[in-house]
UniProtKB/TrEMBL annotation:
CDD domains: MPP_YfcE. Belongs to the metallophosphoesterase superfamily. YfcE family. Residues 1-161 form the Calcineurin-like phosphoesterase domain. It comes from Vibrio cortegadensis. Keywords: Hydrolase, Metal-binding. The keyword Zinc-finger does not apply. InterPro entries: Calcineurin-like_PHP_lpxH (IPR024654), Metallo-depent_PP-like (IPR029052), MPP_YfcE (IPR041802), Phosphodiesterase_MJ0936/Vps29 (IPR000979). Its cofactor is a divalent metal cation. NCBIfam families: PRK09453.1, yfcE. This is Phosphoesterase. GO terms for molecular function: hydrolase activity.
Length: 181
């Protein structure tokens, strides 16, 4: 199972176009959006190419491939523009291996405040805009970084799950972080 992860698009059309291009090239069948899809939020500067209606229109073309959760900048108004549900605070995905993948934005549940997880489960979240791919006390913590507003000197990035590896990959195709699951 190949999964593509993206977080914190914040309404930037050029960044979303770049992310979609990487998604299509990856061959993944599912695009997982970990929140903060259309709105830039009050603490962030307006990103380059800020165009939430066009971002929504682009993402809607992939609606049948998207699993999305709500970020702290997402609202019911955003949902009105999108053809896929994105108002859930979290979602579970059961992998072929039997591992559970807990999807959330990261403002409620994160590596410091976890839901009930078992050894081998994966907690995937965004919110911090900082890539993470590591095992912590039997649980894999994964953050694909940010498509639009990367922090701590990292480049814009996305995540891939393939061949039992979770990778954070920069748009230049460099592997930023990686963990085997």
């Amino acid at each position: 199972m190949n999964l593509f992860f993206a977080s914190d698009l914040h309404g930037s059309l050029p960044a979303t176009e770049q992310m979609i291009s990487q998604y299509v090239k990856s061959g993944a069948k599912h695009l997982i959006l970990l929140g903060d899809i259309l709105n830039h939020g009050p603490r962030n500067a307006i990103p380059e190419g800020y165009n939430p209606p066009e971002v929504a229109q682009l993402l809607n073309q992939y609606a049948d491939q998207i699993i999305a959760v709500r970020g702290n900048c997402d609202s019911e108004v955003d949902q009105m523009l999108l053809s896929f549900p994105m108002m859930m605070d979290y979602s579970w995905v059961l992998l072929e291996s039997g591992q559970r993948l807990f999807l959330t934005h990261g403002h409620t549940y994160n590596s410091d405040k976890r839901p009930a997880l078992r050894d081998g489960d994966i907690l995937a979240h965004g919110h911090t805009h900082i890539p993470v791919a590591e095992e912590q006390n039997g649980v894999v913590i994964f953050n694909p970084g940010s498509v639009t507003i990367p922090r701590n000197g990292y480049s814009a990035s996305f995540g891939l799950l393939r061949n039992n590896r979770l990778q954070v990959i920069g748009f230049d195709q460099s592997v930023i972080k990686e963990v085997t699951i």
